Please model this.
Amino acid sequence: MPVTVEIRDPYVTSEHLKEVFDYFSRVDEQFSTYKPDSEISRINRGELGPGAFSTEMNEVFMLAAETKRQTGGYFDIRQPSGLIDPSGLVKGWAIFKASGILKSAGFYDFYVDAGGDIQTSLPDAGEIWRVGIRNPFNKSEIVKVVGLANRGMATSGTYERGAHIYNPLDFDRELTDVVSITVIAENVYEADRFATACFAMGERGIEFLENHSGLEGYQIDKDGIATYTSGFEKFVI
Model:
């Protein structure tokens, strides 16, 4: 997936950017279900037992179990096939970790975008980051622009990759009522995991966000009708 890093702080060098992109490459090598030699592929083939899991894998599995509990089972890394695929959480987790690398290097004014999920960082006197939400029926059109400062945003839907999210509580139910749901949270990890779960909930996803402090959302249904949480408008530019 495309990865974009923009740093507005002075004195940034190519080595700083390389460190971030090298980190994303390591995450891909570890968690990609498309790479036969990745750690997750070896786990799925039964070649690695729990005692041999890396620290990062154990962390992701723990976070996935926590998210499953918090969403009433609507987030589950166990696929209908029985294989494990943590990608519904790993992307946001990795973006958040990558932003930590930049902060550790002394940067405060930047954003990290991987596949449309974004973490922003802003100093007190910085210019707010403007982020567009695409029209799922016309990807060249932006339906909303939001301003983000030290927050994360993630979108789940079928318009980019087709049907790739399922309802863990009813594998046979097609998710057609909602075409996209965007979540704004305190960081991109929170936004990403709840966006995935809320999309699996269908039209009830926006209600889940409304009832959970720190989460705001913008949902577009199959008829092109948008519904958003009561606090979402404060982010709209």
